[in-house]
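The authors assume throughout that readers already know how a fold can be written as discrete tokens. In essence, backbone conformation is discretised, so a fold becomes a row of integers matching the chain in length. A single example would do more here than another paragraph of explanation. For illustration, here is how one protein appears when written out as sequence plus structure tokens:

…
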Amino acid sequence: MKQITREYLKNMMDEQANFLLIDARGHEAYHKEHIPGAVTIPSEHLEAGLLKGHKKTETLVTYCSSFDCEASTTAAKKLEKFGFKKVMEFKGGLKDWKDAGYATEK
């Protein structure tokens, strides 16, 4: 899996790149605040069937709370195991995103 920076993710969003942004934290944390456009799929609930409508060539980006959080890494590894070819991890997570002053959704 490729690790990306907040600037890389922001650029993907600004350019309206075609990708699925996955918040790998729990549902409660997601509903409190998340990166715009993200969907909530907690890493412990991630199963191949949840993404059956997505192509294996689709770009998927995972993130969680911060550099210390392992949920995004766990999710990215599962996605690769499920056969997805373009998996990226935004390791800095929500904290790094907010530290840059980027917008969030609640």
Remarks:
- The longest strand covers residues 19-23.
- The domain at 2-47+55-99 is CATH 3.40.250.10 (Oxidized Rhodanese; domain 1).
- The beta strands are 2-4, 19-23, 39-40, 59-63, 86-90.
- The chain has a mean pLDDT of 96.
